[in-house]
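Ticket closed. Logging final result for THO complex subunit 2.
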Amino acid sequence: MHAQKYTHNAQNPCGILPADDTPLPHRPHSHIAKAQRADSCGHRPTTRAVVCTQLTNVRAEHEFVKSTTVIMIDTIQLYDLIQQAIKDELPVEELVSKLNESCDPSSGEDRNELFDSIADALALSDIENNICDKDLKSREKLLGIIKTLNVAQLLPLDIAQERLDVETIGQVNLIPDKKQFSTSYVRLRTKLYFTQTKFNLLREQNGGYAKLITELFRLDPSNSEEVLANVVEIIGHYRVDPNRVLDLILDIFQHNAIGTGQPDIFIEFINSFYDDKAKLLDLLQLRLSFYASKNNELFHIPITFYRMLAIFIHKRIFELDDFQAFLHPDDAKVLEYHKKLVGEAKLLSRKYAMAVVGDEKPTKSVIETLKETSPVDYHYLEVDNHKVNLCAHLIDLGDWQQAMELARSLPEYHCLSNQRVARSTCALINHLIDPIYRECALPKPLSSRIKPICLFDTTRVPQITTIQDLDLEVFPIVLALGPFLSHDVLTLTKMVRVLKHVLLYKPSEEGALDALTAENALYLRILDVISCSILPSISLTCANSSLAREAWQLIKNFKPHIRYRLYYDWRDEGSNPIALRNKGQILLKAKHHMKRLSKESLRQCARHIGKMCYSNPVITLNYILIQIQSYDNLITMVVDALRFLPPIALDSMIYCIIEALSDPHKNKKSNDGLALAQWLTNLSTFASSVIFRYKVEFTTYLEYISNQLRVGNSLDLVLLADLIEKMTGIEAIQAITDDRIEALMGGDVLRTEGAYFNQVKNTRKSSARLREALIVSRLAMPLCIYMAQLRDRLFFNQHDTTTPLKLVGKLYDQCQETFVQYGVFLSMNLSIDDYINFLPSLEKLMIEHKLDPDTAFFLARPMIFHRIRSKFHELKSVAEKDITVEEGEAPELSPQTKGIKFVEAARHVLDPLADTIQPLLAEKYTSCNLNPKLFVIFWTLSMSDIDVPLRCYEREIARLSQVVNEIQGEEDQKKRKERDRCGILVEKLKQELSEQQEHTKYMRMYLESEKNN
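Final structure:
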């Protein structure tokens, strides 16, 4: 062992007990006291220069004291007075009188300063007398002055014992026994500062440890045996304790554990040097115990020690359980702390979601409170958590299984939410997926130029190359990391691209992985990864637009109901305190910007809302919808503000709207029950405006409306009415006039120009989008059928008997208006082939779907007339073949012949319909004898089939011609376009007028023939 070693206070080399620890009652205040302490240590000055130095220090101190505002005693003047008294130039009684007069008796601070100054002056006089003046008379005079001042209570006993020399205070009898006092003082000082703690019983020589350190630092794979032999030789030569040598080897190992060191060499060297694992384990546990808190003293474990422990565990030399009991803090304390953090985060999240925030007094957080009340717990829970740090170093070594075993002993995400652990885990994921990422996500020229990423030793942590390995090796790590993949945005982006590749993967070789389906286990695992890690990680990032677009490229490959399930999980914050706090902060920001949303600040607030929707669209948009349901004046501004939203946010907007509409706790009626609730009408207007303004997928919105109509919920019919009016420009006609009725008797062009206020040019694209959505979702005809059924049973299927009759009447009118509005849209926008394919036959409409004749024939009317026209053209073609004409001339039938052929075509189509519905009429109308053919003709024809609104056509043609004439000479581009549009409409109206006149003529001929039949 080492030579005898004593503890020593570096700040007190003389060994004098400091004032904070000494039992003596007063602390020295001046340089003279320091000189006195030096004298007591045995370092007595031998020259007058020491005295001069002390005098200089005293004068310097005196100048400093004079510069302050506090009244203090001049030590130099006291020293001069005492010297005069020693030389008999001043009587002792007068000295005492002057000292009493120099201080205010009522001020305790002044008297204490006086006592200190007197003691300093006497100590300085004593030192000067001992060194420079050997006159016994002066010595006796000084001793007499000390006695007199002590009796006059100008030199308290405790200050005299502290400041004056032991010999001096013994001569004036201020201590009972000088020898006993000196002995007690020396023993006390030795006990406190010179206690022997170690004993060199083995007679070790310190030089051996220096040679050991030098030898161990040159350890490498090529000379391990040589170093081992040299170490054994040093142990024998210098009588070094082998146990301490092992401890020293661990120190060197710890020093080389991180960086370019080779841990395997030290592991092999330790096994060769000392094969007793129990002794090695004891040393490691002893070190962990040392770092535990002792007497509220905190020790930071070096990161190299964590790495060394992780290496031993990773190499399976020791088990993780061998160190669990020595790692701080214990699991119960961590669990209690985690619950407090979760409770605080939930409280903050609820507070931010309230209508008014900021009235409460500020309170300290759980972390701040813990830091003040228990610094030790704060240190181990937040600063230096042993388990968290050890877990991070295990992940650095690629030992994920051991790291997860340690992390599972703590609350969920408590370990992996640590930034150090999360970054290490992201680095591991980045290392594992690099080969498959380079293959699937990067173009070949780019992937060949970028060097591979190898953050770990590939021999110990092999990288994955197949999709099966991705499922087995990477997905469990990503699921365990959860939302904290956000600590490395690069790795998060790579993971999103890899998942997109796996979703779109198509096998090209035999034996390869089958294409993913909804029933595939890998498909479900990908959904879990997106739901539990990818989307929550995006929420914790800082408005990364590129990441949001990458996420949309992944999510858009799922069906809408799968996407909406992901959005639902995305909204759920769980029990993670970091995610809870993030939700509260997003709500607070959304509230801040919505309060400032106005026409003047629209663009700026819209940008801020867009930035929030890059990372937290569901939370932000849910709050915006809450505001819209209350304030209808926000709808226009919010719709305009959504221009900066990414595609994933627009898609989640439709989900949020459907979720708000389907809330069972909301009443869809107003408080008086006579109208629809304001929140429902506001939400309907907003939804139709968003769908009209932005290109979003809204088939799910149509499905929601269809399901509500199917179950008989007539209150949601306003959603379809607003959507059709906004998307197509076809208004539900409420305030009807004679001119509008006359315009509705015409063709499609006249109805559009004369009966509706909106122009087709503004709704052509949106109408096409609505048509495509209806075709894709196959809801074009089901919506018609559901509305017709709802209208017929509206008066009889009221589950709520308290519904006012006035509201029921309004709903009936709205259902009829929306039904006609929707039917007109289908007839104008669907091709006749699609119309026929989607619409059931007339018999099914009336028999299976139980529709009334007016609604059934309203839906079937375009199909019936298409069959009549098709048969008419067929008969005309046959008749034209029988006409003999000259070469180069086209055959032309006479108007009378065309009329006859039209009558034949109409009979060919309508007669079978009459035969088909005859049994239905006999069953339904038993009390009256209805002619089935008359019944079919009546419900098939409309006003436009028997009359032509000639005045309305002429009025619209004149109006449009006047517009053309007014802007004839204008050069403005917009006006030229308007002129061209009006000119085209004039030609269309003229052509439509001619066609309708011909059609009505043929229909009259058919009616005349049937009347005479």
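The two ends are 133 Å apart (CA to CA). No further action required.
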